[in-house]
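Step 1: inspect the first sequence and its tokens.
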Amino acid sequence: MANSSSGESMLERIVRILEAFDGNTPSLPVAELARRTSLPSSTTYRLVDELVASGLLDRVGREVQVGLRLWELTTRSSSALALREAARPHLDDLRRVLRAHALLGVLDRHDVLYVDRALARSSAVNLATVAGRLPAHASSAGLVLMAHQPSAVQEAWLGSRFTRYTPKTPTDPTQLRRVLAAVRQQGYAEAAGLLVGPSTGLAVPVEGPDGQVIAGLGIVVPVGETDAARTVPVLQAAARGITERMRAG
């Protein structure tokens, strides 16, 4: 695709527009899209018109939102869809048995992308939303996933800058190396007050049919209510069940 004067391709500009939508702002005025993407207004209006014409965006009054055709295309062959279908019964079981929010996430660059969740009647603050992201260094699913990545991926991640969300958020690379080593050794990750003070996340790895870790399965409970000795075996049994369902097709 043709590049702009800045050297950015048409595809890159389209991706920037689509990435401007999030869980808090599912629809936006075109002027706000231009501001968020730092694209010229004329370019944004032209690209939005083309995306609407193709069905990738829909108009809602004076705003636009992600279109149904984009959802259709992305779900046809998504590996996340197969993972989600395999995990759904186990998420429901975890919510019922542990009386906690149950979450399933995959690693995407330096974030956890959540593909499904089952919410419980719990006082725990849960920031994870389906198709939403949380930073790997401040979430139990992120830590358990990063702990099982190749060393080159871990080193690239450790070389980035980490945001401190609470006084307990690990931001020092040396500290994070120790955390990853502990996660590999004990088989689970616990994140007590790393992202929000009142909540603790507990997660275990989920293996794909080939034995590689592909997801993090976890729960969120209020700080001080974690019982790893009781909870981790339940999570691990559910993780094995997801792997078995995926192998069975």
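Step 2: inspect the second sequence and its tokens, then contrast the two.
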Amino acid sequence: MKKAVPAVLLAVAVFLLYRKVTRLWWTYDDVYNLKVAVAHAWTLPFTNPVVWPQKLFTPMISATYELLFAAFSIDASRWYAVHLGLLCAAALAVLAALRLYVPRPAALIGAFLFAAGVPLCSVATQMMVIHHLEAIILGALSVVAYVEGVRRHRYRFSILSAVLYFAAVLAKGSAVLLPLFLLVLPEREVETRLRHLIGHAVAFIAFVGWRWAVFGTISSAYTGWALGPHELPMLMVMLPVKVVMACAGAAPAAGLILMVVMAVGAAMALRSRKAIAVAVISLVLILGPMLPSSKELTPREAILPWLWICA
């Protein structure tokens, strides 16, 4: 019973923070996503490029809209009730992943900060990014399954991790580099970690092949802005600043103070070379894919850097 207390406290906190999202209505891309769900078979987004003019290929969101439409028609309050449930699930999945390496109080604080931050608040108010939550849930559970597999030498956990990773990538392409993060986790020796990543390599190849079969390319047409090579150095310099401002929110002064306090806490946690290496490599894996679209950075797009500093 004592072990369940942090999870219960976190779920209650997330509910209290975001319970009012059930009063929201359709916004942004919801109408297009609903149109796809109503007008086409649920399999179409998995096989037909016409659904993805920007070659984003996140078919899990279309499948989710299809499922919710079949269950609730266009009753937005019920859709957002499911969205609220996924917010709780995302926070709990982060809690489970953090619990692998830190005591319950620290894991609870990290997961709560993640749940209460500006980026997740932004995701909470937009149904069209429900797949961000799905990717976080699946990705965090993939980490948990992988670490358990390596620690216990149980390949069935690693296979489960690979399946969850594959589903996470279908939800959101930003999860595609997750195996590289798993590779640098401080678990046993490198050879053991590599053996437990064979399933993830198969999943990665399967995803790339699937994407190529649908689009004839592995790159996306979505960058937000046209970029020239001469702009990349300045983008690299400004990206951390934009991430910090996106996480600071509408009250930049208070947000920046919070970020400084969290940065001090994060620095105190990096007490070994291994910890520093994991932190730096994981941050590069997060920020690197963000660079091409970083001319304009919205709070929801900063959710992974925010998760990084909370962890």
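Step 3: confirm your contrast with the notes below.
The chain is about 70% helix and 0% strand. The radius of gyration is 19 Å.
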